[in-house]
Amino acid sequence: MSMHKSGFAAVIGRPNVGKSTLINALIGQKIAIMSDKPQTTRSRILCILTEEDAQIIFLDTPGVHKPKHKLGDYMAKATEGALHGVDVVIFVVDVTEKPGAGEQYILKQLANVRAPVLLAVNKVDCIPREKVLPILANYAKVYDFAGIVPISARAEENLEGLLAEIKKYLPEGPQYYPDDMVTDQPERLIVAELVREKVLELTRDEIPHAVAVDIEEMTTRPKGDVYIRAVIYVERESQKGIVIGARGALLRTIGQRARADVETLLGTKVYLDLWVKTRKDWRNRATALREFGFQEDD
């Protein structure tokens, strides 16, 4: 009988290097939200990959950044906490960007980490192949990585190679979660995140990070469809107008795009009832953060 492995893998990196895209590609399903806006992921999200020989529990963490408010503090603590108690750490970098202060900060954090660290060099499909090797060599000089793997999360290049490296460092163990379970997060939270993703896609400037989404009701109706009432919270009245758009046009587009993803997630028809409300300076209010699911002791 072949050996079965199971364990935890933390995925870290600067904002916008492709961590959530990578995890979604590995899992084969959208669980972590994706955006070209930095700091999209706000909490540690467990995503579960089950294969015949192994079960890998990925922790998708907020991008490493300098906190500017209580929400930022929470995100920084979530990332730092994910580095301890895992079996392997995957440090994702963007090959199209020069290493900077963000990478230096993460490398300092990694100096105190006992788990082996794999370097996943992402977006290698975006530059000529001959330029990739020197970049890998430069990273190898600054840290003793357990392995360096060039990948493209979006194009799904060499993901099997990355998985093979991860499995090397997992301990022998049982399968912790059922075959069909891909996240430990409740459906309500995933639905809220999918709505927030569409807000990020369709708004600009200061709007994205001032947005939280709360699912007030999620009910299966007699015909089998699901009614969802979701409230999009912003910090200022002016932001509320932007999210709603002229004659409600932008809010309708947010709803249409989010509904398509939610229907895929739930496997049924969905009626998505969206509202927009103002909650002044919620990112700096501990009570609001708790209500939106950000617990300081998570």
TrEMBL record:
Binding residues for GTP: 13-20, 60-64, 122-125
Gene3D superfamilies per UniProt: 3.30.300.20, P-loop containing nucleotide triphosphate hydrolases
InterPro entries in UniProt: G_ERA_dom, GTP-bd, GTPase_Era-like, KH_dom-like_a/b, KH_dom_type_2, KH_sf_prok-type, P-loop_NTPase, Small_GTP-bd
GO CC list: cytosol; plasma membrane
Region called G3, residue ranges: 60-63
Key words, A-Z: Cell membrane, Cytoplasm, GTP-binding, Membrane, Nucleotide-binding, Ribosome biogenesis, RNA-binding, rRNA-binding
Region (G5): 151-153
SUPFAM superfamilies: P-loop containing nucleoside triphosphate hydrolases, Prokaryotic type KH domain (KH-domain type II)
Topology versus the membrane: Peripheral membrane protein
Region (G2): 39-43
Annotated GO biological process: ribosomal small subunit assembly
This protein's record includes keyword Chloroplast: no
Domain KH type-2 stretches: 203-280
Coiled coil: none
Stretch list, region G4: 122-125
Localisation per UniProt entry: Cytoplasm; Cell membrane
Region (G1): 13-20
Annotated family: Belongs to the TRAFAC class TrmE-Era-EngA-EngB-Septin-like GTPase superfamily. Era GTPase family.
Function: An essential GTPase that binds both GDP and GTP, with rapid nucleotide exchange. Plays a role in 16S rRNA processing and 30S ribosomal subunit biogenesis and possibly also in cell cycle regulation and energy metabolism.
PANTHER family in alphabetical order: GTPASE ERA, GTPASE ERA, MITOCHONDRIAL
Assembly with partners or alone: Monomer.
Protein name: GTPase Era
Organism whose genome encodes this protein: Centipeda periodontii DSM 2778
